[in-house]
Amino acid sequence: MLTAALLVPLLGALALVVRPRWTARAARGFATAVAAVPLMLLLLAWLRFDPAGPLFQLVEEAPWIPSLGVGYRLGVDGIALAVAAMSALVFTAAAAYPVETLGRPRSYYAWLLFLEAVSLGVFLALDLLLFYVFFDLGLVGMYFLIGRWGHGDARRSALKFFLYTLAGSLVMLLAILALYLASDPRTFDMRRLIAQQPLAGAGTAAGLALLGLVIGLGIKTPLVPVHTWLPPAHVDAPGPVSAILAGVLLKMGTYGLIRIPYSMMRDTFERYALALAIVAAVSIVYGALVALGQRNLKRRIAYTSVNHMGYAVLGIAAAGGLARGAAEHARAVALTGATVEMVAHGLITGSLFLIAGSFWQRGEEYDLGAFGGLAAKAPRLAAATTVAAFASLGLPGLAGFVAEVQIFAGTFGVWPWLAGIALLGVLITAALFLLLLQQLFFGTLPARWESFPDLARSERWVLGVLLALVVVIGVYPRFLLTLIEATTGLLVGTP
Amino acid sequence: MPVGDLAPELALLVAAALVLVVASFLPHRRHDLAAVLALAGLAVAAALTAGRWGGTPRLTFAGTWALDGATAAARLLILAVTALTVTLAPDWMRSDRRHGEHYAVLLFAALGAVLLAGAADTLELLVAVLLSSVAGYTLAAYHRGWPLSVEAGMKFFLVGAFANTVLVAGVVLLYGAVGATGYAAIRQRLAAGADPAILLPAVAAIVVGLAFKLAAVPAHAWMPDVAEGAPVPAAAFLTIAPKIGGLVALARFLDLLPEGAVPWRMLLALVALATMTLGNLAALWQEDLRRLLGWSSVSQSGYALMAVVVLGLSADALPALFVFLLAYAVANLAAFAVVAELRGRTEIAGYAGLAARRPAAAAVLALAFLSLVGVPPLAGFVGKLGLFTVALDGGYGWLAVAAVANTVVSLFYYLRVLGTVCFDASSGEVDVLGRWSRWTMLAAAALTVGVGLGAGWVLARLDLAVLVL
User: Fold this and answer.
1) ipTM (interface predicted TM)
2) pLDDT given at position A86
3) Into how many domains does chain A fold?
């Protein structure tokens, strides 16, 4: 079933490439339908997932390079399932959202479906090498999507994105190989690596491997100071592609942190957890401050991603910190919070970037100063933006709050002073989103926006579904928490 | 003497002679037949090699020739590469007056490369280097009416003459130190102890001499010129086949040295570092695609040397070397095949908008470049994965880190080309060459993907790639 979730979008992409005649409309409809199939399959997997069962479920295996201990291994735990289902939803939304494909709808939607397959592959892989394969392929798909369909200095941004993240992933590969070489018998099987903890007590080597993993995954997340590829990539990418970049690709970094160093190098991760938490706190505050200073709509949202992903990393670091046994509950809460943050950030920031795409489609303009007074012209757009912005700044009753309250609760149990510093970020974020809303929707309406169309039907539907889910998670998070806590309990408790 | 042990080499020799005869007597318009004949010769040689795959490793011909898994793997690889360069040639060479003879020279050059891989005697090694070089000069300068081609041949020859002299000096010094030319005897006497004052210069000279074959620092200077000026099919051959032979020869020779007798690992690691870094930095701002491929080929030699550095320290070093060479061969062939298919189009600016005009050629070029970078699941990924693994395993983690840094640098220039190909507006019509080159291009691309996905199968076969001594 998980294999089908990867195969269907790949075949869909192939169909788009092979069959020559597609209108933009037909290609979009087809891509949306195909992108929704993995979503259905993952929801089905959710129903079949047993919260009281073992860590990894629904496992599918086949040999690939047996002499190296590499296999095609798929499976999910609660964290992977939650993030993968959210990703599939964001992909479906991105495919359905109207976008200018510059006369090449076929290849645009083909790349989109290809990217969906490999992104889901990252979350579903139970083999480290397979994980790496999908992780790298995601770069290729994103490179072509930004470079070809972006605007502004898209080629340069795409190049910067690829260079940065490939550097990160190669450093990560070396660390993965260090884990592989230390395992006995040598294997890339995640389950065996988690059980073996191969580099436990290896001193410097383990420290270096952890450093490699944190650099590689930190670039993807992104953590300050290796975040500088993110703003140009976001600004120059088309709206739906930005939504995918923020909603799905960034999650690979934090998901990887949980899956690899947190699970496979418990001792070493624990030793350096405080350092990681400090980097996360810096990201939180710095990201929020820089976001506040941006006058470009997309750039501002992009920097809030640095801030939000900082919360997720803080949660993961807190979950790994302090000796085992002590504060176990706090650590489980922090890890659950981090996972909910990933899901919430995907939905919320995905919506925000889609909205930014709508602004671009209407006027090819991102400068906040150029807008104003749109609340009367486009009430639906204003309403959607307001909900997304409030969710992003952590208003109770919306998804962001559920995540952040758990992260902070967990971190307070481990490092209270650090949680205090990180709270500053929440304050700044609140200010910057309120200012954003004010600049876009209130004040006087500039003359050039006299005929500013409100959200079209397809835009309404897509944003409606995403934001409805944000509210549902905010009001009734239990359905999500049951799934995630099944895994975080096991992860925090395992020796 | 067991002549049968050399059956594949003899098949090559006979095929080359036959091609020469046929080319002399057939009218020029029928010279495609010479290509078919050459392919038949290569097929026979490959079948003879494959037929004895997995036999007991041993020395033959009075200890001058190694008949082991490494020789067999190198033979098959070189034969396959030669076959693909043969199929690349008919469309390209048809307008050349000496079309048919080209295949004969190509077969001689292939024979030289195979001899390099199998030589187990320093004098045999010399013969192999000379044969491979002389045939190589001819191939590079084949278009004698075209100044660039002649210049390429000239530079190749000058660097080669110098490097070959150094190699001869090394062989002589080594003979002076141990009094033997056969590898078995050399190993025995070295184990008993040798004067490092003679041994070190001898080893250094032999390494430099062989570095010429793989275009490694300090004998790399010919590579970009040959890639730019030689006929494209010949350039494809010269950037790959001698490299395979040279690396196996290097591994075979260095494996003889007792651990700690000379600090060759560190020296070779520095050569690898210098080669990959220089190749990549020089490729960065090239405006000519063929020169860029030449420099990228230099840097790839640097990566390949990593496996030789850890030979004997990591059990999988030799299989990793072969997988990397296979991956490099198919991707590099695919890239050169695209250049040939586009009638030798060489300025990067001329590739603008190729994705819209010639989607197949653009896609193959993208696959080839991404494979050279090492993006999974293409062949190049499996190649680099193996190299990184053995480098870490052998305790040369810093070399792996350097290779990673270099890979990121290399991505920059490959993407410069791909960006032009995929994102720029197209500039006019793009003419293509013909059916032979088109199918070669597609076959190389299919292999680039296939080797990556079928890595398990390939690696299982390469377990037998061992050195007899």
Assistant:
1) 0.88
2) 95
3) 1
